[in-house]
Write a structure and sequence with these properties.
386 residues; alpha/beta; Aspartate Aminotransferase, domain 2; Aspartate Aminotransferase, domain 1; 2 domains; seven-stranded mixed β-sheet; 12 helices; 13 strands
Length: 386
């Protein structure tokens, strides 16, 4: 099947296609800037280093970070979250998370609960009661205890379009002296994020989703005054005679060779999002959501989860079929969706999905309304197979 025949509704996993400038810049970087950044003063090494620093500058500006040196490149968002969680929490600390967390948050927290005696509390995001932002924050405040050190939560769910009141949560964390770590895997590029205004201490984001960069890179962006232990040690091109990683950011957390071509592509992806505008992208995704919801509401046997939250992600199931069966049958029509638990068992429990999970449609700025019509026709054909 040619790519032009594919209808892609799996942007929450990775955005596709990418802007052409992303593809072009990855190729250009590999051809003309293929040296190892920070590992030499020759022209190819310096070209790679310049592109990496350009991306730090762009990312810092985009996310409201005043110091580009605090933009740390990681393997992905999961690595960035593990760095923040395992590098900041100490034995006996307590942490608060939401009931919509991805396994990239939930599993490290559970591992620390097992290995370091970390305690955790889960706050209710109000997906079923349509809780107000103020009530949600009141629920968080009731969970804060003397040993609570951190609050970590998703910016936006990866299985429905629920977004959390990040600015209010950040203000509460600052008032109560909590470290605020934000998982923006689904928020970056879809929601305006300003670290300073929102009091975010560590922001964890991917390249390959809403920022339209390549796979293989993420970022942990640190606020002022955050002292974090290293997760991995190794060569960083800095103070090589020292047995430690040093204290200077970003080198302290960037052990090993950075994926310079991927970072170059990420830089262009962020630029493309800035050129279109986050609010414009979000408005278009809400329009796609509204049309998809209208179609599914008019289809017997379909249940949509948390339909009151409009955005880039829609979760549903179809009577008589497992989620994997629906996804597999839609693929026969060239339509890419994802069934199952989406690496977010805690969130699926919160929404009360069925034993096989559910089917996820996730939209991006390159989707078209006409593609939804094709999806609906295909889904009705699948439904008629019963």
């Amino acid at each position: 099947m040619e790519q032009t025949d594919i209808i892609y509704f799996d942007n929450a996993a990775t955005s596709f296609p990418k802007p052409m400038q992303v593809y072009d810049e990855v190729r250009r970087s590999m051809l003309y800037g293929g040296g190892n950044a920070g590992r030499g003063a020759h022209r190819l090494s310096m070209a790679a280093a310049r592109k990496i620093f350009d991306c730090r500058m762009i990312a810092a500006d985009f996310f409201g970070c005043e110091d580009p040196e605090k933009v740390v490149f990681t393997m992905n968002t999961t690595y960035a979250l593990n760095l923040a969680i395992k590098g900041l929490l100490k034995t006996g600390d307590r942490v608060i998370i939401s009931d919509l967390e991805h396994n990239a948050v939930y599993r490290p927290i559970c591992a620390l609960a097992r290995d370091r005696g970390i305690k955790y509390d889960i706050f209710d995001t109000g997906c079923k009661e349509n809780t107000s932002d103020d009530k949600l924050c009141e629920g968080i405040e009731r969970l804060i205890r003397r040993d609570t050190r951190m609050l970590i939560c998703t910016c936006a769910s990866n299985i429905c379009s629920r977004t959390l009141p990040i600015e209010k949560i950040g203000r509460l964390c600052r008032k109560r002296g909590l470290i605020f770590v934000l998982d923006a895997a689904q928020g970056a590029g879809h929601i305006s994020i300003d670290m300073k205004r929102m009091n975010i201490d560590v922001l964890c984001v991917p390249s390959h989703k809403g920022l339209y960069g390549p796979q293989g890179c993420g970022m942990a962006i640190f606020g002022d005054g955050i002292e974090c232990d290293t997760l991995v040690e190794g060569g960083n091109g800095y103070d090589s005679l020292n047995v430690g990683m040093g204290e200077m950011l970003p080198e302290r957390f960037e052990a090993g060779t950075l994926p310079a071509p991927v970072i170059a592509g990420l830089c262009e992806g962020i630029k493309s999002v800035m050129a279109v505008g986050v609010e414009q992208i979000a408005a278009y995704e809400r329009a796609l959501y509204a049309r998809a919801l209208e179609m599914l509401d008019n289809t017997d046997g379909v249940r949509v989860y948390a339909p009151q939250f409009a955005g880039g992600v829609l979760l549903f199931d179809l009577d008589g079929f497992t989620s994997e069966q629906v996804a597999s049958e839609l693929d026969r029509y060239g339509i890419c969706v994802r069934g199952g638990y989406h690496c977010a068992a805690l969130a699926h429990k919160t929404l009360g999905t069925r034993a096989s999970g559910a089917v996820r449609l996730s939209f991006g700025r390159y989707n078209k309304m006409s593609e939804l019509e094709a999806f609906w026709r295909a889904l009705r054909s699948v439904k008629d197979m019963r």
